[in-house]
Amino acid sequence: MICLGAVSGFALALPTGAALAQSSLPPITVESPQQRARPAAAQPSRRAATARGARANRAARAPQAAPAAIPSGPGAGERANGPVQGFVATRSATATKTDTPLIETPQSISVVTTDQVRNQGAVSIGEALRYTAGVSGDVNGGSDTRFGGLQIRGFDMTMPGLYIDGLRVPSSNYVHFNGLDPYGAERLEVLKGPSSAMYGGSGTGGILNYVTKLPTAQQFGEASISGGSFNRYQGQFDMGGPANKEGTVLWRLTGVVRDGETQVDFTKDNRVFIAPAVTFKPNEDTTITFLANYQRDRAGWGLQFLPASGTVWPNNGRTIPVSFFAGVPSFDAFNTEIATAGYQLSHNFSDAVTFRQNLRYAYQHNEEKVFYGGGYTNEAAGLLARYGSTSNSYINSFAVDNQLQGKFTTGFLSHTTLVGIDYRNTSFRDTAYGVTTSAPEINVFAPVYSYDWAIGAMSDNTGIKQSQVGLYAQDQIKLGRLSFQLGGRQDFVTTKVDSGLFNTSATTDASAFTGRAAVMYNFDNGIAPYISYSESFLPVLATNAAGQLLNPETGVQYEVGVKYQPVGLNALFTFAAFDLTRSNVVTYPPPLYTAEQTGQVKSRGIELEGTVSLADGWNLRAAYAYVDAVITQDPVNVGKAPPTVPLNRTSLWSDYTLRSGPLAGVQFGGGIRYVGATWGNDANTFKVEAATVLDALLAYNKDNWRLSLNVTNLADTRYVAACYSLSGCFYAEGRKAIGKVTYRW
Question: Which CATH architecture best describes the domain 16-24+112-744?
Fold first, then answer.
């Protein structure tokens, strides 16, 4: 069985302001209903004329609310969880849990908008993050149907790093929720660095927040069909609007249906995704939105675990094809069902006090059937060993977050305070069996496939139950243009692990206080320097040789940075330098390979990111990251760099829409992505070479129609995305072209 590991990424166990301007399609504007005027007799005396402005301010704070008039200028009318016109988001709640301008947020956060996802033709979360500084969502290559390999600032955040609307959706040892379709997201937000002061048990590198599309106040509809490489055919739709004439009930329905394959032979990539949402606004102070989604994937196993010889370097002049399949065609599946349901409630008690409650239940079932490469038995002959397994995983998670926000002044200081209590209960069970075939070896250069298999003995039967309660407080303090952010949280976690294989169980209680502090100054010219300190802790699920659960991992980060939002220009530029330490890292040293907690990894670096969307139809996104990650405590590899972490990573995307002339409506663009060399194993005995990839866009917008062609890896560059060992390498995705026709009404 293959599982995602905490350090190496894998452990092997063997038995549009501007964007809307660039298109003539009718824009999708997400707003809440305008409030009906109350009869004069029904107006409380405190609702004086001056209070009408206060009501508008409260409405702006409510999750679904929008101003009555449509403001103009960069970021005008934007909400933290709402749509963005173009590439440049100006507000977010991921870092603070309050609707805060990014230029006033003293921590690095990147926002990927729906316009960017559309223009770049991203069809997975991993692809959507390709132009984000210091982040990779597809470390393991484009054929990873598990959608693993989320890396932030040099750390693997695949298992602990995914949040939906601010609530964590945990993973099991074998499967996780990162495969959610990006078409259901209004925006993808990456908060970089420790964030436990607000979110409790979470990873050191940061979090990815999937912000769900919300119902709309304007009736709209959109439908697309697309097709392209790897026999891929997809239909998708997004529609919504008011459900009653008063506009107090809103709805939205989003869906995707796909039939496709991957670049790896015999592997499917089929999907059904549906996401309904309904908003009720009984009065001007209360809003509740019910959200749900269901996703059913029927896919194959895309990760082949290939040897470095034949991929990273030639094997006697021979190269393993990118399409090579190491498994057994009749025994290959990665089938997943995901379902989530919950609500977002907001109520204004007064002009200054707001209560919010976010609740979500998440369920996942996964079935795996796989044979994968296990290293050469005869390198010269190209004979690769194969190991097989089958597994079932069930995850159930319930989370609720209660927040009370207040705004007040004390002397010269203005405050936005937030106090909250959240609760999460998660349970999952992983079972696995070894599988054999009559042909345990395969020739990687001339494969002859076997179709027989036999299920053997159980290799895993692990159950986890974990509950977490957290109490937190935050104060955002302003003194003129100088601002301070102070936050702290106390968590209590109980974890129980039982092994049905060995009839053992272990229970542990853990508690931790984590904090965050920052200071920032906003100059009149749009420049905002800041310095911040943050902490994290993460309960781990590994047990030592005595069957005892290990202590939580901890993390500490120091960050200094500068943000620049030019006055009158729809653009945001950021620079951040960070020093990040992850402690209590779990290692598996030889010769017994049992879990020990002796590891520490330091990650230091800088990130630069810029996004621009201009009214003349030009979008730009540029990113650069320098990440120097070093193992500082380990029984064997002190001074080494973790595998898969490039020292340098840079990207640039630009697109432009012609606004006039005979070619008006034509849009063209492209991008370049560079990923530096990485070490291929923990011992740093070999490197995976750097790679440069080109992407391209050509589209035409006319009336309600949009025709587009996206090509990723335009030159069909063959390269290895990552290696974790001499026998664990993965190809990046080759050239992929997708044509799409969209109609919007």
Answer: Beta Barrel (2.40)
